[in-house]
């Protein structure tokens, strides 16, 4: 699907057969005040990341995926619903959050912006261990850099970010997360700012970390090609809610939701380009019925009317999808005309 296609086979080969949910969102909702109204940035989401699993969260800019990631990190408080880690509800007290962030670490999109230009590589990676008072700082930093593929690590200790390539800077950011020996990485567009030539290297590194350390990861991206290459499961988000989810090969080779089909159509090998009209609706004015219906190519083409669901698309709300591993879709038309894949749900 992209220049790093073989990684998908690696992901499948190294993925555990069964997984216990490690990080979960349960009916999560996050609202913000906006011009006298409430913007529903996350509007009912169930999501689970299992032990040793990589889940891709995909969607257009503004769909709520970054807000969801920040809430899972404890940086935003949910309006309702809950975040669970290792079976326990996330405690937003300062001491509890500090302990939680040793377990769940963020990898930011832009390594240039996330690294202090006045700090050496050593200082950047040592920041976390110092905050948490970990002993053996030098050994921790060296091991983290080595695991991130910067070897020999001592050669990078005194370098500054401007002396590194983009790929090396992203590896330093990953090393900073690894220095705390986390169990989960939340990676926000981890390769978006990198040249195509090094994207595959970073994706391969994340797969190797999963294989070597048993790390779990939630990868936030707008790039379905990236999801194909790295993820075990994918969740497609639109206007604050997950509209399709399931095993990555099942969802991306046979997408059931018109929105997923439109996202897939921009890939070079897609036989037909779907051009969505307009912009996603204002999250303070989420439309009734299916939240995608105003832009839906299936409704506009008359295919929903042929299936007898056009009125339902415009007026009947869809349920919040569960976080189970099987394929699920929130679409009146897909449920009416397509037999669900084996093991799939509504």
UniProtKB/TrEMBL annotation:
* SUPFAM superfamilies found in the cross-reference section: P-loop containing nucleoside triphosphate hydrolases (SSF52540)
The record, for InterPro entries, names: AAA+_ATPase, ABC_transp_ATP-bind, ABC_transporter-like_ATP-bd, ABC_transporter-like_CS, Oligopep_ABC_C, P-loop_NTPase
Pfam families hit by this protein: ABC_tran, oligo_HPY
**Signal peptide range:** none
Q: Which GO BP annotation is one of this protein's?
A: transmembrane transport
Domain named ABC transporter: which ranges? 23-264
- GO molecular function terms here? ATP binding; ATP hydrolysis activity
Q: Supply the alphabetized keyword list.
A: ATP-binding, Nucleotide-binding, Transport
Q: Which domain of life is it from?
A: Bacteria
Q: Which family would the database say this protein is a member of?
A: Belongs to the ABC transporter superfamily.
Q: What is this protein called?
A: Peptide/nickel transport system ATP-binding protein
């Amino acid at each position: 699907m992209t220049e790093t296609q073989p990684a998908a086979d690696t992901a499948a080969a190294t993925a555990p057969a069964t997984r216990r949910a490690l990080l979960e969102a349960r009916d999560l909702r996050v609202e913000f005040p906006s011009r006298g109204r409430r913007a529903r940035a996350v509007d009912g989401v169930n999501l689970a990341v299992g032990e040793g699993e990589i889940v891709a969260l995909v969607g257009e800019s503004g769909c709520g995926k970054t807000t969801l990631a920040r809430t899972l990190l404890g940086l935003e408080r949910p309006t309702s619903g809950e975040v669970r880690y290792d079976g326990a509800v996330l405690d937003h007290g300062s001491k509890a959050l500090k302990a939680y962030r040793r377990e769940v670490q963020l990898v930011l999109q832009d390594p240039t912006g996330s690294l202090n230009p006045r700090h050496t590589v050593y200082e950047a990676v040592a920041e976390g261990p110092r905050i948490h008072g970990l002993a053996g700082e030098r050994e921790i930093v060296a091991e983290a850099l080595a695991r991130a593929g910067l070897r020999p690590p001592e050669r990078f200790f005194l370098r500054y970010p401007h002396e590194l390539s983009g790929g090396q800077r992203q590896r330093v950011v990953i090393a900073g997360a690894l220095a705390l020996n986390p169990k989960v990485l939340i990676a926000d567009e981890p390769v978006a700012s990198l040249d195509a030539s090094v994207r595959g290297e970073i994706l391969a590194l994340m797969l190797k970390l999963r294989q070597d350390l048993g790390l779990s990861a939630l990868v936030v991206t707008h790039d379905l090609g990236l999801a194909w290459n790295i993820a075990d499961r994918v969740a497609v988000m639109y206007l604050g809610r997950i509209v399709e989810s399931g095993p990555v090969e099942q969802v991306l080779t046979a997408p059931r939701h018109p929105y997923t089909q439109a996202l897939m159509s921009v890939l070079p090998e897609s036989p037909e380009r779907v051009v969505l009209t307009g912009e996603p609706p204002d999250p303070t004015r989420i439309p009734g019925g299916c939240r995608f219906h105003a832009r839906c190519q299936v409704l506009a083409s008359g295919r929903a009317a042929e299936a007898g669901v056009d009125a339902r698309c415009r007026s009947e709300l869809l349920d919040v999808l569960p976080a189970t591993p099987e394929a699920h879709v929130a679409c009146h038309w897909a449920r009416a005309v397509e037999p669900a894949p084996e093991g799939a749900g509504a």
